[in-house]
Amino acid sequence: MNEMTQLRALRVDAPQPSPHRLNAGRQALVQAAHGQKSTHRVLAGWRMTALGSAAAITAIALMGSQIQTQNGEPDFVPVARPAYTSQSASASQILNNAADAIAERSAPPAQQGGWVYTKEAIANATDQERPGLRERESWIRYADPAFENGRGGDDHSPREKYRFLSELPQDLNEVKKRARAFYPGDGQESRTQHDFGALKALARTYPAPPQGLATVYRALATIPGIKTARATDVLKREAIAIYLPGHEREDMLREEFLIDPQTYLYTGSRWIAQADNPDPDANPGDRWKKDDVIIDSSRKEIDLVDENHERP
Question: In whole angstroms, what is the distance from residue 115 CA to residue 303 CA?
């Protein structure tokens, strides 16, 4: 399978489970939720689980195929969009400042019988069938024993993640060790890559105890080579991109996560081209340059609700 086929297999509106943990029942759930055939996600794995795996997402609804502009035309997202507006100062300083700010926040009340509602905006420049900006809604049961205590593999219920964060120690090396155990790697990545990926997944947690989430940011600040940069997300909002350059494997894309420059909370993920596409006969959506944003997912809304399919 070549890299272009791999890239097309990556769909941010579909779940990203670890293939070796995915059973037939979970596959059936994916197909029922999305109305599509099963597809191998070559770039899937625990690093992608935080986008919303089939096991944890009990209900998913696509809100139309595209977001429309005022004149009714689809709001297409060009692929040739630079990833960064400018490089930031010390990533360690930014992340530690973010941790201080997050530690002062109050946690949303978690309800044992509730659901986590999320609305996202998604653009995938390689998806020729559904170009442009689309919305996705999902509902995840807050307390789901089927995905706790290892039952869901590297899928964890929001309740389990909340408890994990609330029990983190102050020793940041121990924090990284626990994060690696919580999100096991695939054996092909370095310790630095594993630390970054596991902490990045934890930084997406909602709801989250402020002190625990702040500790995750402080642990991120200790990762060698971590970078931050000013960026603009797919919704044209200002953001801070957090990434680890120079540690990519053979994938053509690097996953980053974005935080709000005011609240410092997670607002989205995106995949950045690590090289020009050398194919002169590529489709328009596949003609990119190094550092172009290829896939962009932005969190528009997240909240706790009482019932499945209930909106805030």
Answer: 8
Q: What is the pLDDT along the chain (312 residues), one digit of tens a residue?
A: 334 444 444 444 443 433 333 333 333 333 333 333 322 222 233 333 333 333 344 455 544 334 444 444 444 444 435 565 555 568 999 999 999 999 999 877 767 789 999 999 999 888 877 778 999 999 999 999 999 998 988 899 999 999 999 999 999 999 999 999 999 988 888 999 999 999 999 999 999 999 999 999 999 999 999 999 999 999 999 999 999 987 665 557 888 999 999 999 999 999 988 888 767 777 766 778 888 888 999 999 999 999 999 999
Distance from C-alpha of 210 to C-alpha of 166, rounded to nearest angstrom: 9
Q: Which two tokens stand for residue 56?
A: 């944890």
Q: What phi and psi, each to the nearest 5 degrees, are found at residue 218? A: -65, -35
**Number of C-beta neighbours around residue 187 at 10 A:** 6
Give the torsion sign (CA, 206, 207, 209, 210). positive
* Two structure tokens written together for 85: 């507006």
| Per-position DSSP letters for 128-166, written without gaps between them | SSS-SEEEEEEEEESS-GGGSTTTTTT---HHHHHHHHH
| CA–CA gap between residue 50 and residue 210 (Å, rounded) | 19
Rg (CA), the chain: 18
Among the listed residues 124, 127, 120, 132, the one whose alpha carbon sits nearest the alpha carbon of residue 72? 132
The enclosing H or E element of 270 equals strand 266-273
User: Which DSSP helix (H) or strand (E) runs through 196?
Assistant: helix 191-202
DSSP 8-state symbol, 180: H
- Token pair listed for 124: 């995938």
Instruction: Output 235-238 pairs: Cβ under 8 A, ≥24 positions apart.
Output: 235/121, 235/298, 235/300, 237/267, 237/298
